[in-house]
Specification:
With 254 residues, the chain is an alpha+beta fold. The strands form two sheets. Strands 3, 4, 5, 6, 8, 9, 11 and 12 form an eight-stranded antiparallel sheet that branches. The protein has helices at 2-9, 16-22, 106-109, 115-118, 236-253, and strands at 24-36, 54-58, 63-71, 85-94, 121-125, 129-134, 141-147, 156-164, 167-176, 194-199, 207-213, 219-222, 224-234. The chain has one domain (26-234). It contains five helices and 13 strands. The two termini are 27 Å apart. Residues 1-23, 236-242 and 244-254 have low confidence and may be disordered. Residues 1-28 form the signal peptide. It comes from Luteolibacter pohnpeiensis. Pfam families: PEP-CTERM.
């Protein structure tokens, strides 16, 4: 440590902002979201489970109609409230009775392995479902982990496109058909995610996600997701070091 501080003295021309950036820590939070109906037959909400709190973006019923839903002030995995909201447009909902994953394996899905989260889902049908994630912190970065499944013999692939401050990127996840899962559920995804990392919100504090069938596939699915937030914040130690360096520089100039 002494050697490090000594070396810092030779770099006094570096700006204060640069030093704050170098001497920083991060605050990280994770938000879990269950998407789907809440009628008891096709889906229910996911409560606090396994030490994690969940948010629920729910339709209230099974529906084949295009509808809009939203959830505000997401809580993180420890129950702390936030300014983050999600609004979803172009939504259809289904689940327990139509191919949802009712016996998720924690060895494969980790914190997503709750039947209430994996057993129901939102979907699009020859259309586009759009989720707008708002109330995000400018300067923070976000990772999105997306899970979807629909057990059925026909091959179905979902195209996810995320748009953030730097542009758009896409991933495809096989939800259904041969090879979608492992031996325990060979025609429905039970072991894979679509993951976007290092996303930055636009000037309005938003990131958008669209969900549709890929290359002519009729259906696109989204059943559960997590939002991992990383916010840089100045370290008190880093600021103290910076103050000392500036004082040293002033003495030298005097």
């Amino acid at each position: 440590m002494k050697t490090h501080l000594s070396n810092l003295k030779t770099l006094l021309p570096v700006s204060a902002a640069a030093w704050i950036g170098l001497a920083s820590t991060v605050a990280a939070s994770t938000y879990y979201v269950d998407l789907g109906p809440n009628n008891g037959l096709d889906g229910t909400t996911t409560p606090a489970s396994g030490g994690n709190q969940w948010n629920n973006l729910t339709s209230g019923s099974n529906t084949t109609l295009l509808t809009d839903y939203s959830v505000s002030n997401l809580i993180d995995s420890t129950g702390n409230s936030s300014s983050i909201s999600i609004s979803a447009t172009g939504v259809r909902a289904n689940g327990y009775r139509n191919g949802g994953l009712l016996t998720p394996d924690s060895a494969l899905l980790g914190e997503f392995a709750y039947s209430t989260a994996t057993g129901d889902y939102f979907f699009s049908e020859f259309s586009t479902m759009t989720l707008t994630i708002s109330g995000l912190t400018l300067g923070a970065t976000y990772d999105l982990t997306l899970f979807a499944t629909r057990t059925t013999d026909g091959d179905r692939n979902t195209l996810y496109t995320v748009t953030d401050d730097s542009g758009s990127s896409s991933l495809v996840l096989q939800t259904s058909g041969t090879g979608a899962g492992n031996a325990a559920n060979p025609t429905g995804n039970n072991d894979d995610f679509a993951i976007f990392t290092g996303l930055t919100p636009n000037a309005s504090g938003e990131i958008t996600l669209t969900v549709t069938g890929n290359e002519g596939t009729q259906y696109g699915y989204l059943g559960a997701m997590s939002i991992n937030e990383t916010i840089p914040e100045p370290s008190s130690i880093g600021l103290a070091v910076l103050g000392g360096l500036l004082a040293f520089g002033r003495r030298r100039r005097a």
